[in-house]
Amino acid sequence: MGRLNVQNVLSSELARRRFFLRPGEPMASELMGPPGEGIYLGRTDTLRTPVYWDFKRLANPHVAVMGMTGSGKSYFVKAFITRAHQAWGTNALILDWAGEYTPWVKRAGGRTIRLGSAHSLNILDCTQAAASSRSRAQAEAKEKKPARTARASTPRMRIEQVLGAMLVLTDLGKHPRQLREIKGALERAYVKKHLALDKEAKSSADGKRMPLFSDVLAQLKSRQSGRKGDEDLEAAVQKIEAFCAKGADYLSRAGGVRLDELVGSGLVSVDLSGLPSEAHRSLAGLTILQFLKERMRAEGWSASRRLALIVVADEAWKIAQDERSDLVAIMREGRKYAFGLVVASQNPTDLSKTILSNAGTVIAFRLMLAEFRQFVGQSMHCPPQTIVQMERYQVGQALVRMAFEKPGSFDGPFVISRIEGEEPRLKWHLEVDKMEIEMDREDFRKRLWRMGCSDAQIQSVSEAFESADRSLDAEELARMLTAFGFSRSPILSFLRGLGVSDPDLVKIFSRLQARSLGVPTDKVVSVVVLDDVSTQKRP
Length: 539
Prior knowledge:
By secondary structure, the chain is of the alpha/beta class. It has helices at residues 11-17, 28-32, 73-88, 102-107, 134-142, 155-169, 176-192, 213-224, 231-241, 259-262, 278-299, 317-320, 326-333, 353-358, 370-380, 384-389, 441-451, 455-467, 474-483, 488-498, 502-517, and strands at 39-43, 50-53, 63-66, 91-96, 111-114, 267-271, 309-314, 339-345, 361-364, 398-402, 414-416, 427-432, 435-440, 471-473.
């Protein structure tokens, strides 16, 4: 029989081995990061470690989200973009296929663009990337770079993008003659407006000169008169006609929504639910993504790495499956342009494997179908027992995998017990003598956790702040931390980290020491407070 050898092992070594965890979890240092950075998502299921999402520490800012109806998917998206705006001033653009975000966006003070009856979009406008945003100019000034004006694309470039979208959404790729007819009609529509095919438009004002889809249809029909019985030409006419008919003519009206109205102005939702078919919704979504891609390429990379925009594509299955889609292209390259993409779907198999493999964060909520769970398990490299558990997840519970920019000791999936809240980032105030120190609540709670406070202790401090109208005296906080069993040295470091000065620390601890000795605080002559508690002068 073997012998059992007992050895002394540090708790840090046990934590690094993590042989107790089923499934494993990343280290707290990987999930939390420095105080004041990242947006709070929730706590891990096993060790209750707070999870903070910070795009600067991840391989890229893109997120793939999956989950059945009612599992917490939409709740997560709302919380995510709300907190990103509060933390970094990040703008959000939602491409809303079903119109489910419209009521929430209105309550949140955002703007809703309803394509169809209310708003139109000129798919042939090649000036959408022309205007450089104010935020970009400010960033370049901060980086001491000469200001640039984002360039417009040429008509020929726009033609290729329109044809690319139609190849994704129709069977045009199987009919080369139809493709040539539509391409020729597009070229003639621009030329008739006196626009050179290979010349950039000078400014966004040139958008008024751009042709419409109805102009393309007119070019095709003009060729029909002399070519009776040409089936390919007739089919090409029908394909364009489908986007010009009454009730579906949002691509054939002058004016239209500008890209500057969609980005750079907080929270905007493009409601596509009023369009007549999935093909219309997908074409509109692809067009906006193409405009965005051209804008971010024209504006270029920013060394500040500010996450300027998050785009949400929810249930965009038709453009999320095809490898040729601009959704996939943006997923591959958006990181270098400070551009984040959130792709959400009830059906994981609707998402291209390229999207899942390139997303820096993958989140899977409850999935009932074994086929879906198996697909997610293979994509996230989950052990079989983890896949089985996904059927029994509670609302808000999710399997998460993060690809960190610097790989850590654990890179597998882990479970968040519940995605928490879309409530605003509340401010707490610490009263120090005659001044107040304002603190973000979640940042403060993170600091307490890193200090070593338990969940119950953090909750006690939270209740103390809330009961005092979110304002607490620094001396009371120090007293509570002392009562929790912390020595003077970590309490001093903690308060210094919050911005409490050394003279104020002397006053706080002198009063605490006086009270512990039963000495009136007005009788204290002097107290010297040292980080090393072995040396101390008493009153």
